[in-house]
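Write out the 3D structure for:
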Amino acid sequence: MTTAKKIVCLALVLAMACVSVFAQAAPEEAAKTSYKIGICQVVQHPALDAASQGFMDAVKAAMGEDAVSFDYQNASGDPSICTTIVNGFVSANVDLILANATLPLQTAAAATGDIPVLGTSITNYSVALDMPEMGKTTGINVSGASDLAPIDKQAEMIVELFPNVKNVGLLYCSAEPNSIYQIELMEEALTAMGVKFERFAFADSNDIASVTTAACQKCDVIYVPTDNTAASSTETIRNVVEPAKVPVIAGEEGICSGCGVATLSISYYDLGYTTGKMAVKVLNGEDISKMPIEFAETSTKKYNAELCEIYGITAPADYEKI
């Protein structure tokens, strides 16, 4: 073979090799330009609505309006609807699932081990996922932000507003693990302050009125933690506690707006925004299993002016009006 022919053959081989390498590398190098996020919210409620909105605003602010789409669905508190929604997200192979509250988180974690799941409005991830105390990370395809406000400070608020309190009724849904967790923390705090308490648990919204009535008959103050069932039934609770003149201290602002006199609450919009910033990191390749659970940075004392007036309560100067 002549030298010229050898050169031509070598050039052809090199050209074919380059084409082959480019064909193999091209799919890996192609950057994804659009993402789909499924949002499952357990019920419609001002606090949860604010968290979902904060989440979407944070993602759009970082990635642009056209780079991401949201499939935002509400489970109306129904586990079967929640399962249908989440399974739909999994079938559609969305890029990420936002689970707004405990039931959607549990459902999403059970439905997929591959799609990243971020929780928001979750009090304690270990309790919600029925896992051993995990520290800062879950080690699985789940992370998110916690809405746990300082329970000890909420207990101090009860004594601050009602220094002569004799018995605190702890009103919560027994079907919500994170509510039970908050009640246990409140019991520890009240015990440390020498304040008596009694649990009043309802199974679902059907027995809230009767259980609240029992609490009013035995207690002079009621504490309601961050509880999704209570949040969707504040009118029912108010219709019992107001005629009985038994004030409610609430775990979050939405419940307080409906039936409480005061709360030490976080901003759920800010909590959702924090979760949204976490979502951007996940979509950009960060390993969610190594992503620490984040918490609200601040909490604020707030009061319900209407109910405080009805009960004859004067809120201290450092309380903000809802």
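The longest helix spans residues 3-29.
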